[in-house]
Every structure is written in C-alpha cells, then in structure tokens.
Design brief:
By secondary structure, the protein is an alpha/beta fold. Helix content is 42%, strand content 15%. It has 2 domains: 176 residues, 3-Layer(aba) Sandwich (Rossmann fold), CATH 3.40.50.150; 83 residues, DNA polymerase, domain 1 (Orthogonal Bundle), CATH 1.10.150. Helix 2 links the parallel strand 1 and strand 2. The model has no long low-confidence stretch (mean pLDDT 93). The structure holds S-adenosylmethionine.
C-alpha cells in the first residue's frame, strides 16, 4: 500500500534541519517522515522512536539507506527523556510528533483498531506487555457509566449513553465487528457521512493507550530536551489533542521559553487531501525553543 507521510513538506520546512542537527522523530510509524529527515543529515543524528516494536522494526527497514545516522529506540513518550539521556546525545535541535495510529496498525485486522475489519478487540499500540489494558477489557469489565463517560469524553459522541447501554447488554463482546454493530445501528445513529462506530472506536483507542496523558507528559519534558533555537513540530488529528498542544505552546510562549511559529494552525492543502484523504483532519503547530535553563 502506498504510504504518504502527512504534510511532509510543511513538517520539513518547520523542523529547519541542518546537516549536523540532532533530531527526534517520536512517532516513527513506518518511517515516512524519518526517512525525509535522515536524508537531510550528514554529521547529525536522528533518534527514531515508536512505542510499537512492530512498526519501529519496519521503520528501520524503510530507512536502512540512512542507518548510519539513525538511532532507533522503542517506548512511550513518557519514558523518552530517560532513554534519550542514556543515549548520551546533547539536547535536540528538532523534534517531531505525528500522533495517532499508523496505517500499518489500522490496516492489520488482528490489531483491532478498525471497525471495517473484523478482529479481536485489542487496540494496544504496543503488544509487548501483557499487563496493558485492551479495548476488550474496557468493553467487557467497565461499568455502563464508566463506558459512557469514556465514549463521551474521548470520542465526543453524543450517543455515548445509548451505546454504553447496548454494549453492556450484549456482553461478552469479543470482536471489532460486534462492537461496530452495537456502536452503530443498535444505538440510534443518524449521521451517514462518517461511520457511526468511528467515535466509539477512537474513544477506546485513545483511552487504552493513554494518548492524552502521554502527549501531556511529552510537552512537560520539552524544557529538558530542547536546545536553544530548536524546533518542535506537532501533527494532531483530534480536536482535544490539538487543544492540548495549542494551550501548552501558548504557556511556553507566555513564560518566554519559546516562540510559536504557526500563528494559525496549518492544515494540509486541498491537493494533499485529494491524494491522501487520511490527511484531511491533520493540524500542524510549530514552536521555536528560546530559553534553556543553565
Ligand atoms: C500516525 S503514526 C506515525 C506515522 C509516521 N510519521 C510515518 O511517516 O510513517 C503514529 C505512530 O505513533 C506511535 N505512537 C503514538 N503514541 C505514542 C506514544 N505515546 N509514544 C510512542 N509512540 C507513539 C504509534 O505507535 C504510531 O506508530
């Protein structure tokens, strides 16, 4: 399948990479952005991170022509500062996060992310740890109220109560197809433009992977990671994530620690959304780091 890194021209422009830059791509996915970054480095280094070991392995293969400049590392945002410190690289000159799921995750039925494919209710971005909660655990063990709250808060779904009720009545639920049916036709859907199950699936994915908490942890860590003049680029696909990025960037700017480079959020061109419809909800924000505490 063709893979298009989202807003890659804009990402590269705002990252302002030089040949000797120290760059981190925290969401390597299939390595689309990483490859374009690595191609611009000579003496510099790209720290290529993803929490999903299967995706990271593919990113390593897809960027192999630049392997001499790339340092792969696996884990979540909240453990990145520790892992970065252990690498012995000084502060970063550029950092990219491209949030959400990768095409690989979305199109493999057994990962359980897609309501269009039948698979187990998993939705963990990393399948390494057996301790992590799966979407199946949430759907089958949480109370009706807890489920409704998750679907409402993370999915911004106004039918959350009806969906939670339908789910609890139908338990146990083991497949994405079962859940898609319950979240759709069983619960009074009327929006025909997007699948009625979209928001419920997104809510469970965001909750299971603690995606908002992870993003906040990363933003908190920026002062300890970035060099003076460094660039931070964030691509989001969800209004709550964009809000988290926007507000934290504003706080850094108010505190004199950073300057916002994107006065208005940057969106993909019509041409890009035509070629790659998956890019249509993307929002890009960029920051230049000013102050580094001594
Ligand atoms: C949209 S994809 C990135 C695609 C990539 N930019 C490319 O061009 O191929 C998002 C990736 O971020 C990873 N990810 C999401 N949240 C993460 C987190 N908190 N820590 C580490 N990786 C994360 C996912 O596993 C997924 O592979």
């Amino acid at each position: 399948m063709a893979h298009f890194p989202v807003m890659s021209a804009e990402v590269i422009e705002y990252l302002a990479i030089r040949g000797n830059s120290r760059v981190a791509d925290l969401t390597a996915g299939l390595g689309g952005h990483s490859k374009q970054i690595a191609a611009r480095l000579d003496t510099g280094v790209l720290v290529m991170n993803d929490r999903d070991g299967e995706s990271l392995a593919e990113a390593v293969v897809n960027t192999s022509e630049f392997s001499a400049r790339i340092r792969p590392t696996k884990g979540v945002f909240s453990t990145f500062p520790q892992r970065f410190q252990e690498m012995g690289i000084r502060r970063l000159d550029a950092l990219l996060v491209d949030l959400g799921v990768s095409m690989k995750q979305l199109t493999e039925a057994d990962r359980g992310f897609s309501f269009r494919l039948d698979g187990p209710l998993d939705m963990r971005m990393s399948r390494d740890s057996e301790e992590d909660l799966t979407a199946g655990d949430v759907v089958n063990t949480f109370s009706e109220k807890e489920l409704a709250d998750i679907i409402y808060e993370y999915g911004e779904e106004w039918r959350s109560r009806a969906i939670a009720r339908a789910v609890v009545r139908a338990r146990p639920i083991s497949t994405t197809r079962q859940l898609a049916q319950l979240a759709g036709h069983g619960a009074g859907a009327r929006d025909t433009k997007i699948s009625p199950a979209t928001k419920t699936f997104m809510a469970l994915r965001l909750y299971v992977n603690r995606e908002f908490e992870e993003l906040k942890a990363l933003l908190e860590a920026l002062p300890s990671l970035m060099a003076e003049g460094a660039r931070v680029v964030a691509l989001t696909f969800h209004s709550s994530e964009d809000r988290i990025v926007k507000q934290r960037f504003q706080e850094f700017q108010r505190a004199g620690q950073a300057k916002i480079l994107t006065k208005h959020v940057v969106k993909p061109t019509d041409e890009e959304t035509r070629i790659n419809p998956a890019s249509r909800s993307a929002k890009l924000r960029a920051l230049e780091w000013l102050a580094v505490p001594q």
